[in-house]
């Protein structure tokens, strides 16, 4: 695995487990192993897609980077500094540089606040554009940037459509001039014609402002459009990493193969591939022994059941699968 | 040969500030025996309401104000309520997006399906239970015997949807209406459920009316497709024809804007603007406010139904003009 020293964000060995408490004394009786040994990196101005199915821990990774969850181990190095070692003030100052956009814009906007106040909130709390007139000008600029009519600045969220609300969330994130934006399923709830508009907007903004994105999604077709690199998660672990084109054309890990094959095709000449991955995802509080994917893997071998595979190099990336063990490229 | 289900000029209205708003406005389609027809469109286009209307399940204060839904020679909209109930859930069954909201959380899934069967057929609990066991096996529930006593919260989303499908199939319906049946499921589980629906349709010759926003699912499973926009059909075509050569500008826009069809480094082709709300629908073609090829009559006059080739219908002035009257009707 090559380590680029110029990465804007590098996550190393991240572990975020949630305690399961039960009984009268609320003793910890188990752990939901949401993220284990997660390593990833994002180059400046580029997009890394973190993909996986529900419950795989992809959102936990995003939230751990912003320290909305408290990781038990690992390092989150943003622009050379480990965020897990910062004190509260330093962390607060750094948060300005990392913003987050969620799936449901209605849930992340305050229904009783005007658009102006929501976008200006970050400006106020980080002391950017101190005077009222400056702030207003800046909010208007942001609205133009995300293609919203600045005349609607004093309206409330319910007066906007779903796509426009997501634009408001993007404007709010952009207002504090972040360098990294964590997009957690940010286009998943939108209709396809609106989704295309928001994806184009995210890409334009990236080109203009040199933003980096961590794009968390379950939708692989969106990934192909937006991301340069992909990390595939399964039950709390990253099982495969690599450039987007390679992940789609020659997926190394059997889970990635299944995921790619399960995308419904829109090619009228091709359909009807039988489902490659069977059964349901096991619970992350009691992951299978050995390889975590072995209960659903079509290529399972005997050793997969009791031995944990390591992370092996494959063409321009890595795979957590014994099948990749022998194929170490130089 | 007449179709199993013939929907003609269906109109469903909800009260609005300035009079009734037709959220389904003159929709007509046929569903043949053993066929999968997909009704596709974006949120708010009226596709689910069309399905609810055919089963007379429109939530109040909405109501079907016009049209006919002829099933096996009988207009369902004219039937007495009691007869409608015997058809609904037995000869025509429905599955929904959220299996959790359709299952009773305090009754075991086996008993729920038994009750559904016994509502329509005079058989004993034991007979019904053994049929449920077979059905669970048939819809791919692992270890069906053990799952009979399970409660909904003990099952994963994929298993719950399989239970819903088993319940829908328990009375051997001729038509299955599936409203976004895989939308809340993960992509690998979705592939399994689609495969299951395909198998059922092949083996039991069940007709499926599939309501979805996902063109990928449509391509995977449908025989014919009806594209809906703002309460109206805009195009109806066999699957291959629609996906290889969409004719209506809206169908073209939808297919082009899919990220799966994007070229690396190129922006996605967008459909400009947003779907207008029902009180702002234009009098003419509903898509005219966003259409890249609109011209003089589009905003004011609703386009005629234009027949193109066999089994292919488009509602678009541009298509009509290009055909120059030939084959138009």
What can you see in these coordinates?
The complex is a heterodimer of chains A (330) and B (329). Chain A has 330 residues and is of the alpha/beta class. Helix content of chain A is 29%, strand content 23%. Chain A has helices at residues 58-65, 88-95, 105-108, 115-125, 132-145, 162-174, 192-209, 220-226, 244-249, 254-261; strands at residues 9-22, 27-42, 47-51, 73-78, 81-82, 98-101, 180-184, 212-217, 229-234, 237-243, 312-314, 317-319. Chain A has an 8-stranded mixed β-sheet with strand order 6-7-8-3-9-10-12-11, sandwiched between helices. A 4-stranded antiparallel β-sheet of chain A has the order 2-1-4-5. In chain A, helix 4 (115-125) packs across helix 5 (132-145), helix 4 (115-125) packs parallel to helix 6 (162-174) and helix 5 (132-145) crosses helix 6. Chain A is globular, with a radius of gyration of 21 Å. In chain A, 46% of the residues are buried. In chain B, helix 4 runs parallel beside helix 7 (157-169) and helix 5 (125-138) crosses helix 7 (157-169). At the A-B interface, helix 7, helix 8 and helix 10 of A face helix 7, helix 8, helix 9, helix 10 and helix 11 of B.
Considering the chains and any ligands shown, give keywords for the structure:
heterodimer; A: 330 residues; 8-stranded mixed sheet; 4-stranded antiparallel sheet; 10 helices; 12 strands; 29% helix; B: 329 residues; alpha/beta
The interface involving the most residues is between: A-B, 46 and 47 residues
List how many beta strands of chain B DSSP finds.
Answer: 12
Report the end-to-end length of chain B measured between terminal Cα atoms: 21 Å
Task: Give me the Rg of chain B, rounded.
Answer: 21 Å
How do the helices and strands follow one another from N- to C-terminus of chain A?
EEEHEEHEHHHHEHEHEEHHEE
Number of continuous helical runs of chain A: 10
Distance between the termini of chain A: 11 Å
Number of strands of chain A: 12
The biggest sheet of chain A, with number of strands, parallel, antiparallel or mixed sense and barrel status, is: 8 strands, mixed
Mean pLDDT of chain B: 90
Element order, helices and strands of chain B? EEEHEEHEHHHHHEHEHEEHHEEH
**Beta-strand percent range of chain A:** 15-25%
